[in-house]
Amino acid sequence: MARFDDLKEYVDSMERDFSQFYDKGNKAAGTRVRKGMQELKKMAQDIRVEIQDKKNDM
Length: 58
Known about the structure:
Elements: H1 2-13, H2 15-24, H3 27-57
C-alpha cells in the first residue's frame, strides 16, 4: 500500500499547479502539470511491472 500512498501524495502535490493552469491560465503551471503527469505515468508503469512480477511469483 506504500506505493498507492506515494501515488496519492504525488497527485495531491500537483493540485496547486492544476489550479493555476485551469483557473488562472498560467502557462508555466501547465508545463509543470505536463511534466508531473509524465512522471505519474512512469510511476504507474513501474507499479504495473511490480504487480505483474509478484503475480507471476505466486
